[in-house]
Structure formats: structure tokens, C-alpha cells
Amino acid sequence: MDFVEGEDLATSLYKEVVRRHPSLSSVKGCVDRMPLNELAGYVSGALGFEKPGGKHVDPKNKEFERAIVFKQNAVRLITFLSRNGYVISERILRKIEKTMQILNKKGIKHGDLHERNVMVRETGDGDYDVYIVDFGDAEENCEMSDSFSDQTIVKKYMQLTKSFKEKRKHELDKLLNELKRIEEKLKGNKKWEGIISTIPKSKDTDELEKWMSKLTAIMQRSCGDDLDTKYKMIALLQLAKENFQMADNYITEKLEDTKLTSFVKNSFIKVKDIIASI
Fold first, then answer.
1. Rounded CA separation 275/269 (Å)
2. The domain containing residue 45 runs over which residues?
3. Smallest Cα–Cα separation from 186: which of 129, 154, 224, 148?
4. What are the C-alpha distances in Å from 138 to residues 50, 63, 226?
5. What's the CA gap between 37 and 147, in Å, rounded?
6. Considering the domain boundaries, does residue 171 fall inside one?
7. What mean pLDDT comes out for the span 86-91?
8. Residues forming a β-bridge with 122
9. pTM, 2 dp
């Protein structure tokens, strides 16, 4: 597919997994030079993909089984990426959908639309050029109902993306509400207000973490012995209100730590999402 500008969607998604998966940190530095089959091997092992074999003798049933396995693997892929701060742009999905609708209305069925046959090129202004390739299995004069499989890739990712966005919004709202509740409870607390007024001015990570630990200790004493991670995230939100850049830099630095658990990493990503909208 060298004659089409851009990168196929499968390669793009696999690269994002390698960049984010803690067990693949040793190879992420050479991710842009890896061929697709090597990327696929790393991603399949890290995410535990099932092999699309198909036990049925009947071709249609065998293909149906393969389709189910591919869908399950896609769910694992998108779920992992979503939890680690990456969601496929809705603009890409909408362009695929619109292109296929135009073709289907003209009676053309692609017949083999999957991630390898979608080429994406960033235009540099937040938008994308999207190309559908490989029409070797295409059919003409098809009814719209015969072209259902052409829409499956879009519906699959649309559903997963929508589900993630709704869940993420709920999680962010919950964290913000918790911040408001704690701020209200600690209103007038001299120790709390005293520490808030002494936000570290330097970019020293150790100094910043000591400051956050003091806030966390006060929250645990005054608001209940809850998860240390949650209070740490709330302390970060307090920091962001006074010094956005320092908070953003601190989170970016932390997300580079390959030893972070997925829970802590996801918590940092949530705070990063919130402070980006402050």
C-alpha cells in the first residue's frame, strides 16, 4: 500500500498499543520502524488476542466464528487504548462511514473492509484524509442490505468509542464532585489552606510530591481513610488550579514511568483530561 499516502489503521492502532503497554517498553523506541507483522505479534501477545481459526467445516459458519474472534480482539484493543488515553478520532470514523454509504448507494460492496484496508493521513490541522483501498473482493449491483459488512468496522468502533466517552465523562464528573466536596469540608481548615498557599515554585519533583503528600494526609484525617491515589489526584487538581503548567508537566513525566500500575496510570490520565479543560 505504499502508493497510498498515510498509514493503515491497523498499523496506527498497534503502534499506540506498543507505546503504552508496560510490557512493551523495551521495544517502543523502534516502533516506527517495525513492520506490521512484528507489531501484530507484540500486540497480540501483550493483549492476549485469540487466534481466528474457526472449527466449523461449513465455510459460512467458519467465517462467522472468525468474525466473532476478530470482534473480541478489537474490543480488547480499543478497551486497552481507551483506558490508556487514546481514542480513535470520530472524524476518521465518520469519513469511513460516509465513504462506504456513498459506495453502497451506488450498489458497490467492498466485501473486505477491515483496519488494513483503511489508510489515514493527518493533514496537520486536526483533520485527516481517509482512503479505502483494496477493492479486489468488491461486488457491483448489490442491495444496501448486502453491504452490511462494509459498515461493521465503523459501528464497532463507534460503539466502543461512545461507550468509553460516556464512562470517562462519568468518572471525571465523579472526581470533580469529590474535589468540590472535600474543598467544602476543609473550608476554614488552617493547615489545608496553609499548604495550598505554599505551592512549590520550582519544578523539583521531590518537592512537589512532598507538598502533595501533606495535602493527602490532611484529606485522609479529615475526610476518611480513602484510597491514597484518589487523594493524590485531588491534590493534583488543587495544584492545577494554581499552576496548570506544573501539574501538566508532572503528570506527563509520571506517565513515562513504565512501573506505574494501570490503575494509577489511568488516574493520572483522568486528571490530565480534567486540567486540560480547566
1. 10
2. 7-164
3. 224
4. 28, 17, 57
5. 29
6. no
7. 81
8. 128
9. 0.60
